[in-house]
């Protein structure tokens, strides 16, 4: 995209040509439209020309569009002298044709130069937090006309222990203003500062996980119908299809836990002549945009979403969301409810299998209210009855087979009779008699006893 395609004044376009800015970078394409509209934002960006252009171009365009400029209207805070001087040079180059003046209050300038810069009241002031805060304190200076404030490289500001200086400066800005924060990383401290400083700010350039940290989950509206269905074992797809058949034909988003889950459901829905498309993390940006557009344009009824957060979907008006797999995180559940229109006919339904029951119980605790248990669809109840009948028939058949088997005969006999000892090893046994046996009265007595 070229700068000529944007609604910039001839003065700013001439300045862009002077500093060899011809085409927008990827970051600038993402950030400039929202910034030019006046939105507060936290933007993930590394130091460099692309980042500096993101905040200087809108600042100068805003100044050039005014008929009368009174006092300092743009304040840019950056942590070190070299960066402050680079930004000053860029502002002077871009703003030359619009006759925009800029002053730099940095660590390399003297206190006298800093006081003179503020007294001159140029339209733009670029400052390092330390010397600027000290000078403002000495002069008891108040910013009454600033309408555009940039906090550059916030992660570096924090690492240099300059955040308190920034907060001291912000207390002296009494006018309503647009605020932009630039950082190359996201930490808890940066997140907390952004929440306190930005007015309904948006985030630009962050990945899905970082967006979930930045965006507070919405409150779950009471108008929304929350329900869940306990799914019989191995009947999840059957339950889903029966529920869909009984539901209105409105557009619906179905969340699964994996790409494999979306692929499986897509085949089943298409086989039953439902129009569906799917999104997952393995898709290219081009394919994801096209499939998403097919859903938002109304070309398909079902959007299947696997392994992606609801924060990645820019939708707020669907009538139904189905959790094919129950989310383990209560915030993700809240984000999914935020996709649904604020309408009494809208609903979110979770399919709860045996292994999901602990998750739904935990969600109930964290959400503060309990989703309503819904009845199984009649078609599923009927299939359950058929399954029970089949099991019962199989059991009877197995029992019948057991009864028809012949009983084993009990070969035991004379159970009360004492076992007969063997005499083979006794003298005079079956092997024959000898003279000693005849003479032995003890042996003869034993033979007579056991015979």
From TrEMBL:
Protein family per UniProt: Belongs to the DEAD box helicase family.
Region (Disordered): 365-451
Motif (Q motif): 1-29
Positions of transmembrane segments: none
Ranges annotated as biased composition (Basic residues): 384-411
Superkingdom classification of source: Bacteria
The DEAD-box RNA helicase Q domain, residue ranges: 1-29
Domain Helicase ATP-binding: from-to ranges: 32-204
Top-level taxonomy: Bacteria, Pseudomonadati, Balneolota, Balneolia, Balneolales
GO MF: helicase activity
Keywords: ATP-binding, Helicase, Hydrolase, Nucleotide-binding
Protein name: DEAD/DEAH box helicase
Domain (Helicase C-terminal) ranges: 236-382
Pfam families noted in UniProt: DEAD, Helicase_C
Biased composition (Basic and acidic residues): 365-383
């Amino acid at each position: 995209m070229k700068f000529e395609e944007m609604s910039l004044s001839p003065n700013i376009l001439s300045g862009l040509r002077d500093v060899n800015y011809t085409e927008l970078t990827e970051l600038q394409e993402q950030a400039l439209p929202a910034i030019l509209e006046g939105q507060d934002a936290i933007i993930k960006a590394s130091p460099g020309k692309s980042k500096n252009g993101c905040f200087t171009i809108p600042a100068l365009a805003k100044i050039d569009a005014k008929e009368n400029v009174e006092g300092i209207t743009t304040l840019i805070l950056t942590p070190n002298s070299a960066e402050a001087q680079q930004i000053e040079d860029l502002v002077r180059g871009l703003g030359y044709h619009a006759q925009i003046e800029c002053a730099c209050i940095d660590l390399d300038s003297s206190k006298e130069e800093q006081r003179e810069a503020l007294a001159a009241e140029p339209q733009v002031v670029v400052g390092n937090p330390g010397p600027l805060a000290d000078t403002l304190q000495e002069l008891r200076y108040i910013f009454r006309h600033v309408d555009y404030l940039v906090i550059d490289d916030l992660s570096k500001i924090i690492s240099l222990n300059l955040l308190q200086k920034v907060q001291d400066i912000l207390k002296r800005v009494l006018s309503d203003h647009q605020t932009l924060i630039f950082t190359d990383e996201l930490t808890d401290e940066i997140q907390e500062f952004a929440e306190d400083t930005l007015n309904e700010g948006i985030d630009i350039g962050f990945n899905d996980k970082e967006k979930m940290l930045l965006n507070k989950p919405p409150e779950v509206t009471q108008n929304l119908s929350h329900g869940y269905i306990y799914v019989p074992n191995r009947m999840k797809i059957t339950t889903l299809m029966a529920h869909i058949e009984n539901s209105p034909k409105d557009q619906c988003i179905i969340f699964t836990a994996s790409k494999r889950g979306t692929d499986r459901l897509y085949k089943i829905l298409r086989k039953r002549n439902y129009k569906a498309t799917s999104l997952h993390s393995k898709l290219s940006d081009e394919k994801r945009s096209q499939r998403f557009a097919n859903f938002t344009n109304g070309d398909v009824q079902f959007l299947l979403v696997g392994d992606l957060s609801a924060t990645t979907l820019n939708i707020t008006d669907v009538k139904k969301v189905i959790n094919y797999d129950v989310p383990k995180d209560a915030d993700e559940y809240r984000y999914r409810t935020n996709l649904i229109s604020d309408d009494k006919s809208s609903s979110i339904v979770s399919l709860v299998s045996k292994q999901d029951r602990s998750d739904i119980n935990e969600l109930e605790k964290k959400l503060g209210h309990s989703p309503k248990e819904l009845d199984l669809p009649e078609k599923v109840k009927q299939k359950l009855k058929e399954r029970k009948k089949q099991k019962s028939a199989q059991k009877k058949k197995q029992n019948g087979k057991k009864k028809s088997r012949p009983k084993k005969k009990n070969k035991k006999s004379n159970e009360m009779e004492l076992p007969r000892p063997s005499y083979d090893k006794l003298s005079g046994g079956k092997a024959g008699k000898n003279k000693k046996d005849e003479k032995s009265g003890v042996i003869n007595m034993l033979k007579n006893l056991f015979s």
